[in-house]
């Protein structure tokens, strides 16, 4: 079977049978496409001819092009998933990628905003929202909700009105793998969301549907718009690292652990399938503790 045909069927399997998120399917599909293009330049166009040596040469070529270890690890995972699927579906008699090893991913810690930094940001948004402009009220509600709940930006923009319960201060979100969970949020976020929903009718058009957060033209707000909003706000807040909405998710998780929350509670709140994914935030908390100790203790 031709590798390109295998790629199309594999991507369909990820989207419809595995129910992976659109971003994950896109990433895996892109990796497999890159692999197939590389294989074709080496005279490999059929699934039966794909070997472990070709896979290793592809990863080596990817590393030489300057890709990060994290990206290389994802590419290796994509290749292994692809070859395992081909064997399982009978396209190939064996699994060429079963012994393909991933490089160790970068262990850089995520960006976390301090409590003072979050207060500064939210106070500025509160001041802007006092204008009563629907867009300002929406932006305030978005940041309050991201920080209060730790939800992913994709989960936030997918929210429909009936998923938000202001009587119980909870929202029903659909995360990776179409897994639904309930996330709580506090009183400040509830006030901000309530104020925005009161002004939402001014943004509504025939394109709005039931979406909670709407753009200037009335359609459901996209992830790019939220990224630009948060990145702009974080540009004036001290700190290094990626400045997108995920920084607020990292910040929420770290502040919860700093405040004494149980790790498994944080795992459930964030919607992590594995506790190991959540444990990165314990490292963040320890780094913050050690930095404070070194700064404050006279014999540190």
Could you characterize what this model shows?
This protein has 300 residues and is mainly α. The protein is built from 13 helices and 3 strands, in the order H-H-H-H-H-H-H-E-E-E-H-H-H-H-H-H. It has a 3-stranded antiparallel sheet. Helix 1 (3-16) packs antiparallel against helix 2 (22-41) and helix 6 (134-149) packs antiparallel against helix 8. It starts with a helix and ends with a helix.
CATH class of the largest domain: Mainly Alpha
Distance between the amino and carboxyl termini: 64 Å
Low-confidence segments: none
Residue-averaged pLDDT: 86
- CATH topology-level name of the largest domain: hpI Integrase, Chain A
Give the ordered list of helices and strands.
Answer: HHHHHHHEEEHHHHHH
Label this structure with key terms.
single chain; 4% strand; DNA polymerase, domain 1; 300 residues; three-stranded antiparallel beta sheet; 2 domains; 57% helix; mainly alpha; hpI Integrase, Chain A
The gist of it:
With 300 residues, this protein is mostly helical. It has 13 helices and three strands.
Record the SSE blueprint.
Elements: H1 3-16, H2 22-41, H3 52-64, H4 69-88, H5 115-129, H6 134-149, H7 153-157, E1 164-165, E2 170-174, E3 180-184, H8 187-199, H9 223-234, H10 246-258, H11 263-270, H12 275-278, H13 280-296
Antiparallel strand pairs: 1-2, 2-3
